[in-house]
Write a structure and sequence with these properties.
Blueprint lengths: L1 H36 L15 H11 L10 H17 L10 E3 L2 E3 L9 H22 L3 H32 L4 H7 L21 H14 L11 H4 L9 H26 L13 H27 L7 H32 L1
Antiparallel strand pairs: 1-2
Amino acid sequence: MLDFIIEKSALAAAVFTLSLVVAMYSTYMERKVAAFLQDRIGPNRAGPFGLFQPLADGAKMFFKEEFTPSNADKILFVVSPGIAMFTATMTSAVIPWGADFIHNGRLISLQISDINIGMLYILGFLSVGIYGILIGGWASNNKYSLFSSIRASSQMISYELAMGLLIITIVMMTGSMNLKDIVSQQSGGLYGISALQGLNWNVFYQPLAFILFLTCALAECNRAPFDMAECETELIGGYHTEYSSMKLGFFLFAEYINMFVSSAIISILFFGGYAFPGMQHFEGIPLALLSFGAMMLKTVFFIFVFMWIRWTLPRFRYDQLMELGWKKLIPISLINMLITAAIILYFKGK
């Protein structure tokens, strides 16, 4: 029992550190991607190739002056960044980062908590994460922050409905809400062909669901072209306009952690997660390292896609954003779910 507690505590610390490091260097990657797309150089002063720029930004954020508006609700003003950060980091607890392996007679799992309702757990924490934004905007006693938090919460609630329908589609195909089961189901041969072992990814069966889910993920993370909550031309800085120092840092970190976790979830649901071609030929620690590498490679790719979209597409108007969610994504997701259910029943009947 003690070994189990130590193992899970070490894994939780490692995943938490990984989330923070990825979030920190996502800011560097964001600026480099933007610079590349705009034919610029990007950060290049702090360290070789600007690699120390995130550390410099973090130090600047940490030593900036703490400021609290005089008419703000001081308790909620302090609590809301913590809620945003807590919900962002907790979603990674059920994500399988690599294949299980046996070491010294013990089965080691690269997943903090292997629960049967993993997807439901993630959706639950995504829903709670809205409170951090909503409370932060309201507690600031700033009309622009309040407008921003209302926009963000209504946007996230709207797109969560379509996201839930898409997840139901994947759950119906897999027969489980356990993320490890979803990955295992995709580790077989594509269309039953043994030569394509490890490529039985859901994206080949549900390409429309993948495109819709990626769209919903962009909206959930308040990323462009759905960044209406931080629309600088209308709302100054959005729901964190009145925040400074590490309170602002928590909000920004939470956004990048959400992007990291969303990319990991997309990889698991549609691209096989840690599964990769030829993984059946490995075991033990080599299998764990290679599967973790495959998972991180897919996740980093989708982080790049998030950034690519941000610096390529223009921002939607708010009415266009809500119309897309309610009048297009939800009906299409519902139709896709019904068609998938009909196909599954047809083949089960045969």
